[in-house]
Amino acid sequence: MKTVEKPVTIEEGDSFKILLSKYGALALDKQENLSELIGEEVGDLDIEKGQLSFGDVTFQVQILGFFMQDSKQWSWAWDNEDIFGENLIKSALQMKTIGEEFEIPEFTTPLLNATYDDCHTLAMTSSSILGMDAYYAVSEDGLDIFVGIKSDLIVEHDSPKKFRDTFYTFQKNFNIYPRIAFEAYTKLKGYGYF
């Protein structure tokens, strides 16, 4: 008898910690793919064009939100349409909709008290849930603007060693549920989980 694996999805009652556990390792994996492409280049964000450039490599982006360094707060882009325009906040609006549907306050509260690391967990979780290829934080005048990237230029590199190292780093450095994280990461990478 063949066992059908339950896919990784957002379920009623999932907390933000559960979602980070489910989707965070995949986001970390994808960040390594981006790093391999851009190397040590620092991103330059052109908000008017909705583009992030690293030397000769340019991506179209979606603004997820930003971290205000002086007040230590995260602000969702969906609450700042007047700054970014409706075309650049579509992904952030999707996260708000998901938050409303599944009652996840981290996605529906316009302004959150947060550390810089908290902002990374919000961007990691969001970019992975939305099927993006990576996210990036750009520092601009006391703000760190977090953008989501979807691009064929970011090539996925897989190996058992990368899987092992990524999961080890994720479970060591983030406050997650390790079993949930391992099962989800295994399934999202297509390895199967039994």
Quick description:
With 194 residues, the protein is α+β, with helices and mostly antiparallel strands.
Question: What features would you highlight for this structure?
Answer:
194 residues, alpha+beta, seven-stranded antiparallel beta sheet
Strand content: 15-25%
The first-to-last residue Cα distance is 14 Å
Sheet/helix structural class: alpha+beta
SSE topology string: HEEEEHHHEHEEHH
Whole-angstrom Rg: 17 Å
Total of DSSP H or I helical runs spanning 4+ residues: 7
Query: Which stretches are low in confidence, meaning pLDDT under 50 for 5 or more residues running?
Result: none
Query: Which bin fits the share of residues in helices?
Result: 40-55%
Mean pLDDT: 93
> What is the domain total for the residues?
1
Number of strands: 7
What is the molecular shape?
Answer: globular
Largest sheet: 7 strands, antiparallel
What does it look like?
Helix content is 43%, strand content 21%. With 194 residues, the chain is an alpha+beta fold. It has one domain. α1 (16-38) crosses α5 (116-129), α1 (16-38) crosses α6 and α1 packs across α7. The mean pLDDT is 93.
Task: Draw up the topology in text.
Elements: H1 16-38, E1 44-46, E2 51-54, E3 57-68, E4 73-76, H2 81-84, H3 90-102, H4 105-108, E5 111-113, H5 116-129, E6 134-140, E7 143-149, H6 160-173, H7 178-188
Antiparallel strand pairs: 1-2, 2-3, 3-4, 3-7, 4-5, 6-7
Helix pairs in contact: 1-5, 1-6, 1-7
